[in-house]
Amino acid sequence: MNFWERGVLMAKGTTTSLDAAATATGAWQAGTNLEGLRSACPFIEYGPLAEAHERGDAAEAKWTIYRHTSASHVDHELIEAAYAEPRLRALFPFHSHRSLNFSRCTGFPYTHDVPVITPANGGYLVTWWKTRSPHGPAGIGEADNPDDAVAMVVARLPNDCGPAVVGTVDDFDKTDST
Question: Where do the H-state alpha helices sit in the chain?
Fold first, then answer.
């Protein structure tokens, strides 16, 4: 069983009991929080990021995960440079194909109106996904170091770019004033 909310897989579990599955489904549909769901249905599992989504601080939690991970696809110098920039730190970071992306919402599908940074050949490529062509994202520029790549992104942030909002790009579009 998977329990989704606003584009986020909040919890999951496996059971062979139809009664347990019905209990979990009923509890989730009734708005039970994660702790209550697991209390009622011990087969349910969730992690710290789901708890952060529930608290409303998913962006900060995701930054913390990236800052402390040992995953080889995460460029720690880039993460620290992006995190040091308050306007980027307020956005929801996510990785895709070794690229560091920034979303204005915390659930999937994410927004793609902020430039993306991809480590490449000892430097960094900064590209747009919003102007993607059949050949890939449109190029903005190249940087020799993460600070310069971050500066290129910040210079191209949407004018009304604020902290990441809860929900998906579809929810964001409904609240967007432009």
Answer: 18-29, 34-40, 48-55, 58-68, 76-83, 86-89, 146-155, 169-175
